[in-house]
Amino acid sequence: MNSRIAQKIIHGAEFAECVRFPGVIQLSIELRSAGWPRRPGRAAGSRNDKKQHRSGTIARESARSRTCEWTVRLKWKADDVGFLSLRDPAGAPHAAGPPECLLAHHRTTDPPTNPRGFAAICLSFAALLLTLISSGPLLADNQHELLNKRFDDEIQQLTQQIEKSPKSADLYSRRGDACFFRGKFAQAVADYEKMVELNPDLETLHWRKGIAYFYAGRYKDAAQQFENYHTADNVDRENGIWRYLSQTKALGRDKARAGLLKYEKEDREPFPDVYRLFSGELSGADLLKRIHDAQISPRDREQRLFYAQLYVGLNAFVDGRLESAEKHLGEAAKNNWGSQAGGGPGYMWHVARVHHDLLVAERAAKAK
């Protein structure tokens, strides 16, 4: 699990450290003391000391006290779920604050001889515990609950706004997105169609409507929507992939592959190679290996792996290999880059998440 130190404040025997796991959780440890000697050479009222006072990060206690208090705390960052924000328009944090779990807390009059080392040990054990539980149902259920509540509230609010402004294509667009992210595909289709009815200029490039058609089981309508898109954009291979997926469900793989759209112009990575997966030139394993072996930055690799896992999973789905589809869509849903993306990439992260959840639910229902 990748992590990075987000905050470290050391002042004499006072220590606070926080590790953020992007998109979901925050692990923090605080070691606070009062009255312990300052480090040699650090005078009270120094520039650094004043800076820390201004930051308000470390609470000051009475100099007469001789106590040590340390805490290890695990927080679920509600405002980091997906690409949505649980902050008000002014940017203020959500009033309820992030849910959290206290892993350890101790207060003693016997301070550790090495505060930084002591804190590092605590942090290491907490991080190990976090690694063990992070893929378990606790975090998953919490994230799902946050997302579902967010979308339910958004759908309700947008419905009220639509009643007041029934001619707003933007409101239907936003409610359509929220319905799709909630797994309400027929409602998403209805809102996207109403959006186009109000503004016909949006029809040709409305790829979200095509994806909603696909998940609503209207595969021929989905294929037609992606064909319409191709008339305006003959570079985007991702659109051609969705047309292939829709035609595979409607007509079968052989006919879909025979009618695969042809592209000659350059496209963004990793879609040239991803497209070769659907033409039969590359296997899913070959595609993923190419990305792992590429001489690119970690961020670029994470981005390419998101799309690769998503479309390897979708390819397995239309081929009926549901176990493989669940595995790869799950990897896409766990991808840090995808979970923090906005716009189109953020929408595609929700596609991975929603589809993965559907496969998990179907498997659980069959097992009963």
Bin the strand percentage: 5-15%
Low-confidence residue ranges: 1-70, 74-109, 129-139
DSSP helical segment count: 15
Question: Overall pLDDT, averaged?
Answer: 74
Distance between the termini: 33 Å
Strand order of the largest sheet: 1-2-3-4-5
Rg over CA atoms, rounded to whole Å, is 25 Å
Total strands: the figure is 5
Molecular structure report:
The chain is of the alpha+beta class. Helices cover about 55% and strands about 10% of the residues. The chain contains 15 helices and five strands. It has helices at about 45-55, 115-135, 135-165, 170-180, 185-200, 205-215, 220-230, 235-250, 255-260, 270-280, 285-295, 300-320, 320-335, 335-340, 345-365, and strands at about 5-10, 15-20, 25-35, 70-75, 100-110. Strands 1-2-3-4-5 form a five-stranded antiparallel sheet. The chain starts with a strand and ends with a helix. Residues about 1-70, about 75-110 and about 130-140 have low confidence and may be disordered.
Can I get a quick summary?
The protein is of the alpha+beta class. The chain has helices spanning 47-55, 115-133, 137-164, 169-181, 185-198, 207-215, 219-232, 237-251, 253-258, 271-279, 284-293, 298-318, 322-334, 336-340, 343-367, and strands at residues 4-11, 14-21, 25-33, 68-76, 100-108.
